[in-house]
Amino acid sequence: MVYWSEATTLAADGKILISGEYRINKPPYNLTGGYLMKCNDTGAVDWIQHYDSSNHIGYSYIAYYRVTELKDGSILMAGITPNDVSDNDDIILTRVDNAGNIIWSQTYNSRFWTRGRGSADYFYIQELKQDPFTTDVYLTATHWALGENVTRLRVDDGGIIWSNVYNVWGDFHRPFGMDIKENELISFTRYAGGALNFIRINKATGDTIATKFFGTVDPSFFNLGFLSPEGVTKLDNGNYALFGRLYRYYYALNDSITPLHHVGVAEFDSNLEFVQATAYTNNVVSNSYNTKISVFADGSGAYSMLKPIPGWGDSADVYYIQFRNGQILRQRIREYRNEGLPLENEALRLRDGSDLFIKTIGDNITFRHKVEFLNLHLADTSSYCLGRDVVNNFAKPYRFQSFSSNLRSVETNDLRLSINKTISKFPLDLTKIPACRNISYCDTLSLVPSADTLCENIPFTLVFRKNKACGSGLFLNFDTNFVKSYRPLNDSAFEIKFKSIGTTKLSGSILGCKLLTDSLSITVLRSPGMIGLGADTVICPGNTIRIAAKPGYAGYRWQDGSTDSIFIASQPGIYNVEATDSCGNLFRDTLEVAPHPPIPFDLGADIRICERDTATITAPPAFFNYRWLPDYNINSISSQSVRVSPRQDTLYYVAAEKTAGCFVYDSIKVFVNRAPAINLGADRSFCTGDSAVLDAGPGFSQYSWNNGSSQQRLVAYRSGLYTITGITAQGCRSADSLRIHSVFANPVVNLGIDSVVCDGTIRTLDAGNFQSYSWNTGSVNRTMPISQTGIYSVIVSDNNNCKGADTIAINTKIIPPAGFLAPDTSICSYGKLILSSNDIYSAYRWNTNDNNASITISKAGLYWLEVEDEYRCKGRDSILIALKDCLKGFYIPTAFTPNSDGKNDLFRPLIFGTLVKYEFTIFNRWGQMVFRSSDYSKGWNGMIGGSIQLNGGFAWVCTYQFEGEKTVTEKGTVLLIR
After folding, report:
1. Nearest 10 degrees: CA dihedral of 626, 627, 630, 634?
2. 122 — phi, psi (to 5°)?
3. 439 has a pLDDT exceeding 60
4. Separation of alpha carbons 23 and 362, rounded Å
5. For residue 392, which phi and psi values (nearest 5 degrees)?
6. Contact 879, 826 (CB under 8 A)
7. Dmax of the chain from CA atoms?
8. Residue 907 in 3-state DSSP?
9. Burial status of residue 207 (CB atoms within 10 A of its CB: 0-12, 13-18, 19 or more)
10. CB atoms closer than 10 angstroms to residue 228
11. How do residues 240-280 score in pLDDT, each as one tens digit?
C-alpha cells in the first residue's frame, strides 16, 4: 500500500493531521482513494481513515491535497476525483468529525470547463479557510486559463453562497491565500511572471472593493518574481508575509556561477504597502516542485529544496534552511540514496520551536513506501540522521514597487454542485518503522570580539562560542545605522564592517532548550587618513604663513618639536609634521616655503559711467582672498570681478593674496556723469479739440519719443502713453513718461428747431442734463421759460469740464385756437348726439377723457374740448346740451308690404324711450316661429329661410322694459300684404 502525504496541518490539540491519496494493488485496477490520519510529531498514529466511492468500479481515485481543522473540532478536506460523465476531474470536499467519521461530502465543477479537459487538475485549491467571524468556509484556487477563483461555502452542507473568478491578465494566476476580516476579505495573488495583485472583496456579495498591483524592481522582471506561491501569513506585527518559489531556480545561462533564487518572502504592511523582501539563494540547480517554504507569525520560517544526484536514479540531496527576518539561522543537507521523493510538504512549526517536515518516500531497495517525519531544531547537531551543516546559501534583499492596473473581468457563478459521490470509510493499520533521533545540548553562549575599539572601515570579527554538541546557529541583532555589512565566515564567526562612528551594541541568541543571549559594546573611531599639509608655497617678506595639519589626530610633532596641529611660518624653509591617529597609525608630510618674487597687479585706467549705470571692475586672475573697499554700491567685496554702481565719484581699492600672506594692492576711480531729470508732469485727460504740450526740457543732445519724434517738445492730440528718452553728449540718459488717459467728447445740446410761441402762454426750453449752464439771458438753470419772440442760446459744461452750445430762434407769436364747437343744443332723454370740432387740429382732449375729434353723448350737460394746433398752441371751447321733452312709448303697425320698394318693407315695433330689455317674436298660423330678435332696430322681411311667405296673418309677441319701469309683454297680429 502506498501513501502520498499531500497535506499537513497542526490541530488545536498539538497533534498533526495528514491527508492525501492511497493506492492498493488489485489488478486489473489499482484501488485508490483518499485518507486522513491524526498522529503526534513522531508519527505515532491516533487514528487513520480511508475514503472511497461506495460504487468504486474500474479506474477511480480520491486525492485530498488540502486539510484544515474547523472551529468546532471537525475537519474539512479538499481534493480531486474523476467524473465519468464529463470525463473531467471534479473538486471534492469532505467534512468529517474529530474521529474521521463523514458528516457530508460534495463534488463541484465549473461552468467554464469543457468535456475532457481534466479541469480540476488545474483548478488547484491554494487555501481552505474558515471565517473567524462566521461558520462559513472560503477557498481560493488557480483557475485554468481564466483567473483566480474565490468561493464562499456553507459549513453545514457545503452549499455554495457565491463563487467568482477575478481575472487580471488571463493565464497563470496563482493565489497565495487570503486574510478574512469582519466585512471583507483580502486575496493575495501572483500573475503574469511574478507580478502581485491584492484584491479587497465584499464578503457578503463577492464584489470587488479595491485592488493594488506590485512588480519587482529588477532588470530582469522574472528573476525575483514568484513562480509558485506557497502561502500568506499574518505576522505578529500586523503585516503580511507572502512566500513561495521564485522563477530564477535554474541556470538561465548554463553556468554554475550565477546565483539561483529559489524562494522569496515579501512583507507588506496592513495598508498593503511594501515593507521589505528577501530572496534565499545558492548555486544549486533544483527541480523546483520539491521546493517548499513556510513562514510563521514571528517572521521565522523554513524551506527545503531537492538537488537530484545524476546517475543515482531516485537519489537526491535535500537542503533544509531555517531563517528569521532575512537572516539564515541554520542550513544543512540530508542525503537520500535510492529513495524516491515524489513531493515535499511545507514545514510545520511545533510548540518547542522546531520545524517538522513530513513527506512520502519510495524505498527502491526494500520496495516499501513510507511517510517520513523529519524534526529539525536550531539546536540540533550535525548528523547523518538530521543532515550535515553547509554555508552555501545566503539571503538577498530585493524590492517591489506599485504600478497602475486593474481587473479585466469578474465572472460570477463559477463553481456549481456536480454529480455527488457516496463516500464510505474503512480503517487500516499502519506499520511504524524505526528511525534515528538526535538529542541536542545547548546551554552556553558567549560573544568574543576581535577588538572592542576600532577605526571605521576596518573589518571586525565576531566569534560566538557554544557547546561543542550544540548545533544551533547564531541570530545576530544590530543597529543598521552603524553596520554597513556582515557575512558569516563559518558556523561560529561573522565579519562585520561599520559605516558610522560612535558606540553601538551587538547582541546574539541561539535556541537550545531555552533561548540563550549575549551582548557587547563596540566603539568605532574615525581615522582622519592622510595628513595633507598641501602643496609647497612661497612667503612674502614680513608675512607669515599658517601651516595646518588635518585635525582629528591623537598627536602631532613638527620639525621644531612643537605639538600643535597648526604651525606659523615666518621665514622661507622646509617644514614637516608627524601625526598619530587613535588607532596608532603614523602619518607624515612635508611642505617647502620659498621666497616670493615681485607680483604685477593693475586694475587699469579710471572709468566713467552715467548715474544709475553699472561698471564691472576685474582684478587680475591667479590671486585669492580679494578684498574691496569701500563697501559702497558694490555687489561683492571678495570676488575677483565686481559690479559697482556709485551715485557719486568714488575711488575703489582692492587687496589680494598671491600666496598665503603675500598681498598686492591697486585702486581705480569711477567718475559719475549725470543727465538732467525729465518731468513731463502728471498723467491727464482733455476734451475734443484740446491738446497737451509735452516738454522734455533742455540739456540733451538727442531726444527720442516713442512715436518717433526727435524734438524737445511734443503736442499730444490723442490718448495713449507718451515716453521720452533724453541722451546727453556724454551718453547719459534720462527718461519719463506720461499717459493721456482720455480725449473726452464734448457735450451735445439740442434746443430744437427754430419755432414759435403761443400768445398768452409760457414755453420752456430744456438744455439737457449737464454739470453747468450759461444762457444768453444770464440764467444758469437747466431750463429757460419764454413767452416772447427772440433768439435764445446756452453754453453747457459736463463732468469733464468739456463744453457744448446751441441756439434757437422764436420768430412768431401764434393766437391759440377758439370757437371751434357748435352752439348749445338739446337732447331727448333716450336720444344720442354727436359732438365734434369745426376745424382739424393735431390733438384733442374732451372733458369725458376722450382724445378723438368727435364724441357721442346720450346725456344733457356742459361739454368742453381742448385742442392743440400744429404749433402746439392750445385752446378750449364748450357747448351746453339741454334736456328736451320727446315722444315715449310702444307703437306697432297692423300690416306691412315687403315688396322691396323701400316703404313699409320691414315689420317691427316703434319704441321711444331708453330700453333695458327687449325681445320680439313672430309666429305663423301653425304656431311655427318665423322671426325672433333682441335688437329693436331689426324687423321681419316676410321670408323664412330664404323662402317668400304668402299673404296672410301672423301673430306676434313683444316683451320690453323701459329704464326705471316694469317689464311689459304686448301681443297682436299683423297682416302680410304683397
Report:
1. 50
2. -95, -20
3. no
4. 13
5. -90, -5
6. no
7. 174
8. strand
9. middle
10. 20
11. 999 999 988 765 555 666 788 899 999 999 999 999 999 99
